[in-house]
Structure prediction request, 997 residues.
Amino acid sequence: MGADYGGYGSDDTTRLFGVRLDRFDRLRETLTGDYKATFGLTTVILFVLAAIFAPELAPFDPMAQEYAIMQAPSLSSAHPFGTDSFGRDLLSRMMYGARISLGVSLVAVTIGAVVGIGLGLVAGYFGGVVDDALMRFVDVLWAFPWLLIAIMLVAVFGQGVWNVIAAIAFAYIDDFARLARGEVLSIREEEFVLAAKNIGLSDTRIMIEEVLPNAVAPLIVQFTVLVARAMLAESTLSFLGIGVKPTTPTWGALLGQGRSLIGQAWWISIIPGIAIVVTVLGINLFGDALRDAFDVRGEEGSP
Amino acid sequence: MSLLDVENLRVTFPVDGGPDVRAVDGVDIAVEPGEIHGLVGESGSGKSVTARSVMRLLDGAVVEADRFDYRGEDLYAKSEAEMRTIRGDDIGMVFQDSMSALNPVMTVGEQIAEVVRHHGDVDESAGLLSELRRKYVTGTSETAPSWRRAVELLETVGIADPADVATTYPHQLSGGQRQRVMIAQALGGDPSLIIADEPTTALDVTVEAGILDELRRLCDEMDVSILLITHDLGVVAETCDSVTVMYSGSVMERASTEQLFQHPAHPYTKGLLRSVPEGGATDGELTTIPGSAPEPTERPDGCPFRDRCPAAFEACADPLPEHVVDAGHATRCHLYTERDDPGEVAWDADADIDAGVTAVTDDSGEPSPTEVTDG
Amino acid sequence: MGIQRYVAKRTLQALLVVYVVATTVFVAVRSIPGDPARLILGGDADADAIAAVRAELGLDQPMYVQYARWMGDLVRGDLGESIFTGEPVASRIIGAAEPTLSIGLVGISIAILIAIPAGIISATRRDQWEDYAATGVAFLGISMPSFWIGIVLLLTVGTAIPAIPSYGYTPISEGIVPWLANVILPATAVGLPYAGIITRMTRSSMLEVLGEDYMQTARAKGLPPRVILFKHGLQNALLPVVTVAGILFALLLGGIVAVEMVFGVQGFGRLLIRSIERQDFPIVQGSVIVISIIFVFMNLFVDLLYMSINPKIKYGGEA
Prediction:
């Protein structure tokens, strides 16, 4: 069994930060041969590029109001995605919005991952009382649906990017903690971990250099899935008007503003939605291809 | 007429992006009415695949044979619907790992009773809706003939308190009890042939002896023939009337149990028998032969055993011959067809220890170098 | 572990979680900047009036007294009064519950009715067009925000079929048909993402079950394919789905709140959002606690359901 994970100094496979590189051979094969992965990755890259280069690419200033077409939102060749009720160009607003939507999700899930994986590692590695205490804490986190965390944060601190990030990060800590703990529990009895203990490596070193690299595959898959879900959560919060400040053009907020104009300007409610769906679909498909590539079994969707 | 008569069976598994795997390469098997026929070989010798091919349970495999007759009728000429009236009905099957082979969410009584309903002589509806109603709504009535028969069968296979045991779930029973349940289940359709695939491998030696006695008794008293698949020559010695020895997809030797143990002909059989205690059972590990069985894709031409055979010579690269040693005793070794005197096979007594390999393994899978575990 | 002990232990755990949630809410509300009394009375109220309201709310008491009062009220089901209307929070929440529960329950029902057959077909017809279709739709489902599905439904079905009202809510007391007609679009919007996840779950779990030894045993017993699939396979395949279905209530909640806004349903979600906008804290804190309670006990219920369909737990063995 030890060989499956790469034992402590037991083979001469090339490694990067302790992760056996041959594990990624199948990943490369899958990613080049799989239509899901190709579509997913391409989509995500396109949206990320659009977000990064929004100032260069956007045809208009997202805040510039065109008085001539104010109150008369329309689709035209100058504004292929239409304009909103203030005469602002929707395409430009969406490109800037992508920065918020993608950025918030990535940062939130990264924070959730760091904290959650840390908790899970420690709980799983040490077991006993430490494990019990940490996992009870995780249980409590889990009993707060993310929406409630967001509502409480907004109620206390008002609206803001960091509140949204905090709410989503909080909500995903338990997902990462549980997964990491489960992985660690199965890895910590492996021979290469026992060997590392025998030669006197410190617990911290064993956790970071021996245990973590071997739990990396399912955690990456989890990360991808949760980024997709975080985008949906962020858009919901913005749509409800309890997310990022209403003046910031996130995709969810654009949809929220379009709601009152649904009769006369359907595109404001539809087009940013399509952006959300395509991006999230891309991330989900990419995540699924990763799951196949890493051969990660298990739940399709714990929230 | 043999009950089961298979000639030149070949089973091939197509592999995506690789060479096809021929798991069984020209096997003859004959089971006579009223006997227990042993099919013995290492893991990966193709014995389980051979057994499953009789039930036509090999999805995705290409099965070819010159003859595949059960009671004189070609099993592979039958439709899937006709096969369903043979599986569980005329041929019962007992699997090795009773924990995973029994359904965890159904009582063992119901698992036996459903066989009785589908194949036995009871007047109970066995359609999908009746079965689902029974499972989820009403439960199986304990006065239903199928249930009473299930309890009877549990008693037949030596279960104490059969009525109580029938209402339990598999995980509540011991390994030996579960294996008896598997046998009762195989008996549910009143079969003429039971295929038992390593039925005792997962069990303790004492429990194993009980199960083997049970099979022997069923064969003698209920006129059931048994095809017993095993890796353990001890089990063969104890239970079987006749035996077929397989190695890497081919038959090496076929004989009555007595002939095989008294006058083994094939060097492989001799190697296997070398350290089996006289007529006694072994507990799992049989013996050791240097080297390991070839992968199906890397078999040498001719005799698959020749790379490990101490008596190998040039002719071994030729296709396997058929040599009749005695009435009911045949071997497929070139020593008998190419040499006037096959002579004695010189097995080096220490070879296995030097090589540090276990050639014939128990159920743990492929023969592999013994792992060195310290601490 | 006996079944009663297990249930007792899980219930106790659930209550503990609710207690921690309630405490957190207490602390959170006290850390909101500003004086609730001033908020109630408006900016130009005089000091005496403010002091009177503070006394009435118990805000002049020491923290631990406030905490004890807060917990005591909770236990008696008293969630306080709305700052703006003075109505008891509990009755506001109960009043808003029917539309929300209707959307949620119909949504879950739609999801399960679609997802479980789709998952089974997907698994049994693996790598054929049925599988690709089901998988594709499922992926689309989990990638769409509920409220956006609502908007699309509103623009398409809602405008195309006048018989389906796309706004507001009809209480169930006015008849099942008008109620259902009114609930069906929001419920679908909420249910589709849920259906996507359950389809994927059912598929992977069914695929695993199809490879199990006992499925081959069932074949070796000569049972017809449909009996093998539904009698031997289905229950085993649904065991893991049940556990996840419970966890997914969190997902459902966000969906319902947003969908209520799309369809102008005067439900719990709308109450919640309005209260945040108006800073009606008693309603917000009451809602948070009620949702946590529902959430925790839903999961307890799912646990018990799982136990009742899994004999391994019901009859001992692995606990």
Q: What stands out?
A: Residues 32 and 38 of chain A are 7 Å apart (CA to CA). Chain A touches chain C at residues 139-140, 143-148, 151-152, 154-156, 171, 228, 232-233, 235-236, 239-242, 252, 255, 258-259, 262, 266, 269-270, 273, 276-277, 280-281, 284-285, 288, 299-303 (CB under 8 Å). Strands of chain A lie at 15-16, 19-20. The two ends of chain A are 31 Å apart (CA to CA).
